Every structure is written in structure tokens, then in C-alpha cells.
From TrEMBL:
Keywords, sorted A to Z: Cell membrane, Membrane, Transmembrane, Transmembrane helix, Transport
Transmembrane segments: 12-33, 45-64, 76-99, 105-125, 137-161, 167-187, 216-235, 255-275, 287-305, 375-394
Protein species of origin: Lactobacillus delbrueckii subsp. delbrueckii
Subcellular location: Cell membrane
Gene Ontology molecular function: transmembrane transporter activity
Keyword rRNA-binding carried by entry: no
InterPro entries: MFS (IPR011701), MFS_dom (IPR020846), MFS_trans_sf (IPR036259), MFS_Transporters (IPR050171)
Protein name: MFS domain-containing protein
Main location: membrane
Major facilitator superfamily (MFS) profile domain location: 216-406
Name of a matching Pfam family: MFS_1
């Protein structure tokens, strides 16, 4: 069939079903990460330093899962990979419902980290197979569904945690089972997509091995990967060190938690606006630059934040950057990646984010211990801004050499 965005003679996965699977699994995942530190520290008596190591292992496992599954997408049939990944995640969460002591909880958390990266890279890679819509639209919708899942999950998890942690894990397992069932029933068109790619390799239409990016594409993409990693390096301090800072200023902890509901709510609204008015930004470059710039500005405003409204303002500016830059980067990487290696580079996108996530709390905590919070805010803003300034001449130099694979 011929579509607005391109031509395809094969059926493809319906975008709404991809969204349903993503929404269900993100609600389930959002039951786990908000409670990990509290559960380990308050229920199991694990020290914060050990918890930091646990979370680091989770992030490393996530990066490993992303890397492996992204590469396998380009080589193997993705249908059993995504269906099996979601089903395994459901089984791990079910096991957590019955065995959640120490240190087995650490083992389960590493498993969920690996499977989270595995499934995330596969969903992003599968999204690159959709030809009915522009890539930017598809990734905006996926990002919307992820954050809608975060809104629902984080609102519910507090009540479930107080009632029964066993029930919490069982419900999370059921949500991943829903994702696996959707994948099993509705993702079958990806089999034909894989078969066509394999046939094209045999006939010489595409290379037998995954192609490398053209040199200009590679350096441009690496620039965005570094920027993404640095941005996440700073961003992770909102999830760790900023809570301590706000409480030290006399702001109740529950108001800090409310900031994340505000964050997810703004993301949902912005994604709806971008989906309805896709031409707000003239190009995907503009969307990314705007978003990264907002990140830099948000850290500067934290220098002056002394009361809760000041933190709400900083979070709102940061969220505006997050909701525009983060979904645009995988869409940009998709356009820059050769057809035979799209999965590989989608995996690398998640790895770039994962590196920032893994080292962010340690980096920020060290800066704060040595120089204080305000110095950390300045370093965060300047670091992100320097990455952005480096991207401008890089794009000017390479824009005429870049090739697109839409």
C-alpha cells in the first residue's frame, strides 16, 4: 500500500497496538523504580551506599540488554524476541512477589534492568519499521504513552505499597503479561518485515551484514549521543540529590514527589500538542536544540529556587526540554541509520541514556560534597550548554554530507 510517508507492500503493526503494549509495560515498570530505594532501606535495612551499587547494576544491565537486543533486531526475527522479553519480565516480577528478601531482590532488579533495556530497544527498533507515519510522529506518540504510564504508575504505587508489596508485584507482572499478549497477537506483521529484509540481503538489495553509518552521519549522531548522555548525567540528580536539597530547605517530601506528577503531566500535554501540530518546529534539529537549551536554562533557575514555586518553575522548564528533545533524538537516529542497522543504533541511543543514568547520582553527589549544590547547578547548566554549542558548528560542517534513510 502507498502511504503519506512512503511505500510499503506489506502489512505493518498498527501504531495503537504498539502504544497499548508500551503503556501497559511502563505502568508496570513505574510500580518498581519509585519504591526500590525506600523498600531496600526502610524494609530490608540496606544502606544507601549499597543501594547505589544496586541501582548502578540495574543501569548497567539495562544498557547491556539494549545493546544486545538492538543488534539482534537487525539479524533475527524480532517477533519471538519482543514476545519472549515481555513474558520473561512478567515471570521475574511474579517471582519478586514471592521472593523479595535480600539479596535475591538485587538479582531480580538486575534481571528487570536487563529485560527493560531488551524490550525498550526492540520497541524502538520495531517503531522504525512503521511507514504509515513520519518517524518523529511515531516516537512522539511512544514517548507520550511511556509518560502516561509513569503518571498512572507513580500515582498508584504509593497506595499499593502501603497495602501490600506482594499485590504490587503481581499487578506489575499482569501488566507485562498484557504487553506480551498484545505482542503475541498483534506484532505478527514484523515477521514479514524481517523476512523481506532477509530476502533483500540475499538478492543484494541490502548488505548481508549491518551497514555502518556514513562518516558524516556517524559523527553527527555521536554528537547527539554525547549530548544525550551528559543531559541524563545531570538529570538523574533530580531523582536523587534534589530530594535531599528540597527537604533541607524545609519543603516536605510529599511535595517533592508531586513534582514528578507535574513532570509526567506536562510531558503528556506537550506530546499531545506535538502530535496535533507536528510543524511547530521546522525541523527535527530545531526540536532537539530547543529541548536541550531548556535543560540548560532549568538548572540555572535552580540557583535561585528557595521555595516550592521556584522548584515547580525549574521542573516545568526542564520538562519542556525533556518532552521535546528526548523523543526527537531516537527519531533523528532512525532517519540517519542505514536500513540494515536501525536496531543497532536504536540500542546505542538507549545505551547513551543509560551511561548518564548510571553515573549521574555519583557525579552529582561528589560535586555537592566538594563544592555545594549551587556549584553543581552551574556545572550542570554549563555542561549541557557546552554540548549544545559544540553541536552547532558540527552540524554546519556536516549538514551537506549527511545522508538520510527514511
Amino acid at each position: 500500500m502507498k502511504t503519506k510517508h512512503g511505500q510499503s507492500q506489506l502489512p505493518e503493526i498498527a501504531l495503537p497496538w504498539l502504544v497499548v503494549a508500551e503503556l501497559a509495560t511502563w505502568i508496570g515498570a513505574s510500580f518498581i523504580w519509585p519504591l526500590t530505594s525506600v523498600y531496600l532501606n526502610k524494609r530490608l535495612g540496606i544502606s544507601l551506599s549499597v543501594i547505589g551499587i544496586v541501582l548502578f547494576c540495574n543501569c548497567v544491565a539495562n544498557m547491556l540488554g539494549s545493546t544486545i537486543s538492538g543488534r539482534l533486531f537487525d539479524r533475527l526475527n524480532p517477533y519471538p524476541l519482543i514476545t519472549g522479553g515481555m513474558l520473561l519480565n512478567a515471570l521475574v516480577l511474579l517471582a519478586m512477589a514471592f521472593f523479595h528478601g535480600w539479596p535475591v531482590y538485587w538479582v531480580w532488579l538486575v534481571c528487570t534492568g536487563f529485560l527493560g533495556g531488551w524490550n525498550g530497544a526492540l520497541v524502538n527498533s520495531i517503531a522504525t519499521s512503521l511507514r504509515k507515519y513520519p518517524g518523529r510522529y511515531v516516537f512522539n506518540i511512544l514517548y507520550f504513552s511511556q509518560n502516561l504510564g509513569v503518571v498512572i504508575g507513580t500515582l498508584v504505587v504509593g497506595y499499593l505499597y502501603d497495602y501490600s508489596i506482594e499485590l504490587l508485584f503481581i499487578i506489575a507482572s499482569c501488566l507485562f503479561l498484557i504487553g506480551a499478549l498484545v505482542a503475541f497477537c498483534k506484532f505478527k506483521p514484523i515477521v514479514a518485515y524481517h523476512a523481506r529484509r532477509q530476502e533483500q540481503k540475499k538478492t543484494g538489495q541490502t548488505p548481508l551484514k549491518a551497514e555502518k553509518m556514513p562518516k558524516a552521519n556517524f559523527w553527527m549522531t555521536m554528537g547527539f549521543f554525547v549530548t544525550l548522555g551528559v543531559t541524563w548525567l545531570m538529570y538523574m540528580n533530580w531523582e536523587s540529590n534534589l530530594s535531599v536539597y528540597m527537604v533541607s530547605l524545609g519543603i516536605p517530601f510529599h511535595l517533592y514527589s508531586t513534582l514528578w506528577t507535574i513532570n509526567a503531566g506536562i510531558i503528556v500535554v506537550v506530546q499531545l500538542i506535538l502530535a496535533r501540530f507536528p510543524r511547530i518546529f521546522k525541523s527535527i534539529y530545531q526540536q532537539i536544540y530547543f529541548g536541550i537549551f531548556m535543560f540548560a536554562v532549568s538548572w540555572l533557575t535552580l540557583i535561585f529556587a528557595k521555595t516550592y514555586p521556584g522548584f515547580v518553575l525549574s521542573m516545568s522548564i526542564l520538562t519542556l526540554g525533556e518532552s521535546t528533545a528526548f523523543p526527537a533524538i531516537p527519531a533523528y537516529v532512525n532517519d540517519m541509520s542505514p536500513y540494515s542497522s536501525k536496531g543497532k543504533y536504536q540500542g546505542m541511543t538507549l545505551v547513551a541514556s543509560g551511561v548518564g543514568r548510571a553515573f549521574g547520582p555519583l557525579f552529582g553527589g561528589t560535586l555537592i560534597d566538594l563544592f555545594g549544590y549551587k556549584t553543581m547547578f552551574v556545572v550542570a547548566s554549563c555542561g549541557i550548554l557546552l554540548c549544545l554549542l559544540a553541536l552547532l558548528p558540527l552540524r554546519t560542517k556536516l549538514k551537506d554530507q549527511v545522508q538520510f534513510f527514511k
